Every structure is written in structure tokens, then in C-alpha cells.
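Sample entry (378 residues):
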Amino acid sequence: MGISFLQIGLLFSIREISTAILEIPTGIFADCFGRKNSMIFSFLSYIASFIIFYFFPVFSIYIIAMIFFAFGEAFRTGTHKAMILEYLKIKKIEHLKVEYYGFTRSWSQKGSAISSLIAGAIVFYSGQYKFVFLASIVPYLLELVLMISYPTELNGEIKKVQKHNFLADVFQNSKETSANFLKIFHNPALRKSLLNSALYDSLFKSVKDYIQPVMQFYALSLPIFLFIKDKRDTILIAIIYFVLYLLTSTASKNSGKFMRKFQSLAKAINVSFIIGVFFVILAGLFYLLDLKLISVIFFILLFVSQNLRRPMNVGYISETIPSKVMASGLSAESQLKTLIIAILAPLMGFLSDNFGIGFGLIFLSVLTLFMYPLIRLK
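Predicted structure, serialized as C-alpha cells:
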């Protein structure tokens, strides 16, 4: 796309910083003025971002596109989960929240699997990444139409704003929602559940990309790829992510079954935390021993465990957050994750540069285990 790796890194930084700044305000907006409305803004922001990326291939304009993308992310995170939970509340099936969210996440992962193949095919035949942005507009437009068709009940509890007193009512609604949001942090159980979820997900996101080059190295050594020299990296990445997303889809779908094997949801979350961290330790250990294929297997298991765990975390957190501020509470979890990643990701990079990837994986995992007694759920 005609930009350097440094510029790509800067764009990612702009996206993460913008999302972090907007995270909680957009969550409060969703709780105050409607979650369905917030999701509509999210899809409009994504579409605007893709249009700019496609039509204006200039780095300075890409910054604007990334800010629009950050708005899309911020309006979405927390809000779509809050909508699912609101639907379960309306239907009086809240006891199925882990199974239901796991099922919806499973389909999301299947969609990502198909998308990876489509994106790979587009790049393979066109030779240009920008056409991926153009193609991405279509499903987001369909999602936008679908979101508009959703019943207004999914907006949650919102107060009507009188036209003659518009600004005063908007300010009062925002003030009340913000006050209710701040109250939830007085609950020690909620603080612990947010940290438990955020710390694990932050470890996962900080280390997950380090073993992908190893997967690529082993896959490229397969006989079939010896006969495909042009754009074989594109084909390979598409296939790897297709398989990975199918596995994570299966994991999410079976999250409820995993939970029922334990006495409580908290117990299932605690066990999955320990298992996942040990997957990272073993991935690092086998990387140090130069048994990289085994390291890759544990890396894949880490992906699976993260998607097995996520629906359980959302279910547990939802039990401790009042329905009125569900979107902003879940957005707070997302922002907490961003802050922890801001610490762990550079540390992983420093350790990998100076001591090797294997050592970095082990060090971050052990550090996370030391934190476990403080965030263990009861």
C-alpha cells in the first residue's frame, strides 16, 4: 500500500490510543442514549474508515481513517455484548448467557475464517491490499441494515430527551449514567472479575503474534508450497487463519459445556486461567529447546483456550454489573485490557530482542501466575 513498517506501526498506535481514549465515553453514550444507536454509529464509522483507506492512499489521510476505525471499535466494544445480555433479559433466559454468547462468538469466528480466505483470494488475484477495504464495506453495510431493523428494546433503559430542554436533558442523562458507572467500582468482586479477564486477555494478545512466523516456516516447508512460489505467503496466511478460526469457533461453542464440568462458573474461569498460562509457558519452553513444532501446538491450544474462556468471563462479569451501565462496564474491561497490554507488549518485545522469544514467553507467563492469587475468583 506504499507505506513503511514504521508508518504501519504509527497507524496501529494511533488506533489503540484513540480507542483507549474513546472507550469509556462511548460506553456511557451507549448506556445513556441507546446501545442499538451506538452500534449504528459503530458501523457508520467502520464504513467511513474503509472508504477513506480505499480512495485516499496517503499516509496523512490514513491517520483520519484510523481514527474513524477507532470510533467504530469504541462504539462496538462492550455495547454488542450488552445488547446480547439485554436480549436474554427480555426473553428471561439470562441463565443461558455463557452458552448464548459462546454460540454467537462461535459464528463470529466462522465468519472470520471465511473472511480470511476471501481476503487472501482478493490479494492473490488483484495483487493489492486496498481492494480488501472495498470488499469489507459490503458486509458492514449489510450489518448496518440488520442493526437498524433491530427492535428499540435492545437500546436498554434510556430516558427520553425533551426537545425544548435538549442540552440540559442530555447533560443530566450523561451525569446520572456516569455516576452509576463509577459506583460499580465500589464492588470488590467486580474489580477482581475485571482484572481476571483483562490480565489473561492481555497476556494472550501480547504473545500471540510471536509464534506465527514459526507456523509459517513449517507450513512453507510442506511439499505443496514448493510448487507455488508467487504470493505463497498470502495463500499460507489465509489458510492458517482459516483453520485457526474454525478451531476457536468450536471452542467458543463449547464454552457452556466446559463450564458445566465444574461446581461454579468462577471455578471454571480459574481453571481455564491456569491452563492457558501453562500453555504459554510450555510454548516458551519448547521454543527454547528448539522443538518449535511442539511450541506451535501449544500456541494453537492457547488460541483455543482463550476462546473457550471468553464467554465465561463475559457471563461472570455481567452478573456483577447493573444492567443500566452494562455497556460502559464492559467498555471499562476493554480499556483495562489496553492499559495492561501497553505494559506487557513492550516488555515482551524487549525480552525477545535481548533474551529470545522463548524466554519472553516464559517470563510473562510466570509474572502473570504471580498475579493470580490476587485475582482468583471465589
